[in-house]
Amino acid sequence: MSLAQDLLQQLERLAPFGRLPAVRALHLPPPPPPGGTKGEFCALELEDGSVGLSYVLLGNTWAELSASELCRTLPGQDALAVAQGFAHSDALQRTVGFAAVNALTRWLFNRSDFAPPASADSIGHLDPQPGETVGMIGHFTPLIPRITERGARLLIAELREDLVGERDGVRVTLDARELAPCPKLLATGTLLLNDTLDAMLAHAPAARQIALIGPSVGCPPDALFARGITFLGGSWITDTPAYLAALREGRSAGSAARKFGLTTAQYPGWEALLARL
Q1: Which letter, b or e, does each residue of 127-156 get, where b requires 16 or more Cβ atoms within 10 Å of its Cβ?
Q2: Is residue 131 scored above 60 in pLDDT?
Q3: What is the pLDDT of residues 243-254, one digit of tens each?
Q4: Is the pTM of the predicted complex or chain greater than 0.85?
Q5: DSSP H helix total and E strand total for the chain
Q6: What pLDDT, on a 0 to 100 scale, did the predictor assign at position 38?
Q7: CA dist 253 to 170, 213, 238, 241, Å?
Q8: CA atoms lying within 13 Å on the CB side of residue 126
């Protein structure tokens, strides 16, 4: 079963617990600057204030979303029906569907009085050691020094040919099969959106510590932990109006959100959360 099917199957367990909140709005960031990474995420807001994020800089997603009737027809729609778009081949439906998956997950967390613990560890408890090679999927420039300054080597699997090469203990390759011997792996939540998580994990069979990080890591954790992920790091919105205003204006969220980190030991499980409803 695909990851999308796993996640949607879990969300369907919410249906018997009464009416779920409908969609209030989809919030888009300002136009992204050419070659820049600001305004990376959209936010789907539910009627109860629950919010889910999704990445909008894959391909031409932002421009297509901003011009699409989809945004204007979302208010009032059933959130669980919108979430089904995550399994769709259409990029826009998948992007919005993933945001709905994350929003409904936040709804359950709120209703069951569960909040993941705060985290200040941007590399997911990987604890790089001198001499070992840490794998990274995608070129996360700000995180590179946090690994290499510990004396570890870094192997980055990338799609951009202009980044390929080796320098100062960092090797960038287009061949994800080179991740095979890495005992530790750092990946972005974008792998969830573009449905490449399972394929990339298959290239890293030796990884015993796998950190999946990014603001859009907000879906049901169970399927991710079952796939060997050991640490989930995402954004926990603490002030919804302030966060959404900052997103629409292209500003930093500041104190309107905090980083969280979640491991299997800290997570009670989907069934336990449902039992609290």
Answers
A1: ebeeebbbbbbbebeebbebbbeeebbbbb
A2: yes
A3: 999 999 999 999
A4: yes
A5: 11, 11
A6: 64
A7: 31, 17, 10, 11
A8: 35
